[in-house]
Amino acid sequence: MDTNTLLLILLPLVLVQISVQAYALFDLWKHKGAKGNTPVWILIIVLFQIFGPLVYFLFGRREESA
Q1: Which of 3, 20, 22, 51 is deepest in the core (most CB within 10 A)?
Q2: Rounded to an integer, what distance in angstroms lies between the CA atom of residue 36 and that of residue 26?
Q3: Which residues lie closer than 8 Å to 8 by C-beta, 6 or more apart?
């Protein structure tokens, strides 16, 4: 596999990962925190790449009040 093929495979994955992380951080900021400690959630989102934002969306997000 040459370098161009590898880049064509990895680039979309990297873009999805960055997009999901950015949206999770934006959501955390927009909703003024989450369940638990906000700095800890920031570390989880940034350090655990694709799994951190998923964990945040599943367990850390505050429920919208109607």
Answers
A1: 20
A2: 17
A3: none
